[in-house]
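This section describes the prediction task in plain terms. A model, or a person checking by hand, is given the sequence of a single protein chain and must write out its three-dimensional structure as a string of tokens. No templates, partner chains or ligands are provided. The sample shown here is typical of the held-out split.
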Amino acid sequence: MKIVKVVCAPGRTGFYFDDQKAIKRGAKMDGFFYVGAPATPGFSAIRQAGEAISLMLVLENGMVAWGDCAAVQYSGAGGRDPLFLAEDFIPVIMRDIAPKLEGRVIDCFRDTMEEFERVTDRDGNRFHTAIRYGLSQAILDCVAKTNHKLMCEVIADEYGTTVSDEMIPIFSQTGDMRYDNADKMILKHVHVLPHALVNNLEKLGSNGDALVEYTSWLCDRILHHRQDPAYQPIFHIDVYGMIGELFGYENVDIIADYLDRLEKAARPFALRIEGPIDAGSHEGQLEWLARLTRCIDERGIKVELVADEWCNTVDDVRAFVDAGAGHMIQIKTPDLGSLHNTADAVLYCKEKGIGAYMGGTCNETNRSAEVCVHVAMAMKPDQILAKPGMGVDEGVMIVYNEMQRILALRGVK
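The expected answer:
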């Protein structure tokens, strides 16, 4: 199908851009605002409204294929691309990408996006990951509309996989409302919970006691309030490197002792800890997360470690998998740019027997979340993030409902 015109519209995301460096340094909240000066280049405040760009491809038959360019909440941190503002990047799309698309016939998703992953702007730089992310959604939609298929079917055809005939487990995040929002997850029988946003030392507590207490509370809450005794969610808590910050990321035995405490507090539920340490660099993270993973395994501590920080590209995912740095990898979809990289990353994890968590960020849009569901249904990761937003209900609704539509349209009973 030929593309006759490229159109862009500025948009809002389901959350905010947050300056992770300033927050880790202890920035305090005043209501929903953070107080103080930002610490990451590009930020005008520690928290500012999330922005997106809807990238629309008008096709020759009048239909419109589209995707949303969006970047992660903690932009500019952990080796990621800088803050993504619509007024800065719409001109880039129209100047450097639109002329390469208009008048072109698109009939293959993967080949097209492999090409655009290599394309540079007029200054010789690769396009921002958010642009490649949104463009890949639009191209996938274009190929699906051209071939009268679901987007998941296009992915499955091009990668030689089969579309899942069951739900992919959904992981939801509480944000700072880690008690009330956990209750929402329990009510809706979310498969993996609660994330908990432990992004500073105060939330972790002296010697980590606050997180141990919260984990115990969550365990008791589920056992008391679950409506089905068979409901057995997995606990997945993101600590943003704070455990390493508290005990020193090189002290793997001390960290392992603490993880053992958390595992006991979570029983009878399985426990995953995302980002237990942040070694401050890609190489350091590979080395020390791998050491911690080996220590956990050797001691028989039943905690799965999830890699996140400094694992931003498909090559990073392969490197973390090969190094044994974590039992599961978060494949943070906006950070990988084009969604074909996400598909490649999921495949690599599965081939190597490492857990594949198809994540992303609360700072996405309904459109990017829905398209990600199609990739997940074709590639079958171990879990997918409910997104966007931090309100639980909205993200779970968007991801759950899109999966159910796919299953219904494909006639799965």
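For orientation: The radius of gyration is 21 Å.
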